[in-house]
Amino acid sequence: MSSALDFTYQYAFPSGVQAVNGKPQLSLATCNANHTNPYFFDGRLRSPRQVGEMLLTLSDVVRTHFFLPTPALLDPVLTSNENLLRLEGFSGCCGVYARVDLPVEAFEGDCHGRGTTNVDFNAPMRSALKRLRDNDDVSFAVGKDEVALSREGETTIEKKVKLPLRWIKGFSEVQAYQPALSLFTEVSAADALRFIRTMPKTAKPKMPSFVTQVGRSIRLSQRSQANAVQIHGTHRVKIIESLLPRAEKLRIWWDKETGTSAWEVCYKVGSFFLMISPEVFRGFSGEGQVLSSLANPASAEIIKNVRAQLTWQSEINIPGIAEQLSVSAAEIDSALAILGSRGLAGFDVTGGHYFHRELPFDLSQVEQLQPRLKNARKLVNEGKVTEENQGNALVYLVAGSGTQHRVELSEEMGDRCTCPWFSKYQGKRGPCKHILAANIVHDNQQDELGN
Known about the structure:
Elements: E1 4-11, E2 16-20, E3 23-28, E4 30-31, E5 41-45, H1 48-62, E6 77-80, E7 84-90, E8 96-103, E9 107-111, E10 115-119, H2 123-130, E11 139-142, E12 157-164, H3 165-177, E13 182-188, H4 189-197, E14 209-214, E15 217-221, E16 229-231, H5 234-237, E17 249-255, E18 260-266, E19 271-276, H6 291-295, H7 300-308, H8 318-325, H9 329-341, E20 345-348, E21 353-356, H10 371-381, E22 385-390, E23 393-399, E24 404-409, E25 416-417, H11 420-425, H12 433-449
Parallel strand pairs: 3-11
Antiparallel strand pairs: 1-12, 2-3, 4-10, 5-9, 5-11, 6-7, 6-10, 7-8, 8-19, 13-17, 14-15, 14-16, 17-18, 18-19, 20-21, 22-23, 23-24, 24-25
């Protein structure tokens, strides 16, 4: 059984759609790590049905375990600033990441605060979301509205859960995956809907399907083809089907190297972003794309200074921060990767930038999030990494179980190792512990030489 934290959500009221002054009000209850109930927004929804469907699909993702019949009842994370409301969440298996972006144009109203919080997603609210229609005059409140929701005798709604560490860890991994994604194609929502409807409702986990482009349309094939997006578990993508009738287009992102793909449903205002892992059985939490950045991080001073520049921006200006701190943009990017691993930043591939958010969990309780990195540091501390003289080549011998593994470090060819882990995954799931250990030793050597 995977490790988990005992976590309690404390909401001042349950989320739901209630009658206020004779009109429906969609109220999302919030709770942060300090068990306070921040109040971010009140106003009116311009497209109630669209927003309702987006939130309902996000709820479907976080309530689903895509390869085991195990319910996952976790509440998504919401980040608010003056530009947008952004909700994020993972499936119970951590193999699907979903995000709803609602810019200010989606509302008539104002954001009152900046911050990140959990949002109560309960069964009655889901039922109410299904009934929203665009001709409804629906007000919208995020957090506790003392006017609309004032009542005698405050009641705190508690939801005690086993919060999987891998669910938290997944947030650090998806922000490391997204910069490698590139736009595969863009099709109209009508073409996308026809395509999604060809997908089977159930999928054989070990049998991949392939998305190919034919003219301006896309089709699904069971045969491997060059320049085709590979999907394991088409049922994970089919979850966006209900969103397409009111959308404008679908954009597909992919990384050929890792096999990760993302599906962006674009509306006139707002978007729904779905990212799936390379295989149904692989959760993002176990991938290790962020490990290289963690093994050789930017200086603690730069990381501290970059964090001080974060003010809940929906778009972090790397060149601007680099100029202000008089360091390179690469150092700022490295610092953001570290902050992302701590839940303090995310990456939005659709805009090509980082954004600031702080996960509403007490991460000080989580000490074993990166066991591969911990084992690499143990190898270094025990002196089990030695450099082998190979001329200009960077070669290290790293002790393994009854053998020694040969590690070659190369910026041009990529790092390689003789261990079974590397042989199986070829670096697609991040570096093995031996490559991490060799990089740590090499980085320490360069520091000693003053390079």
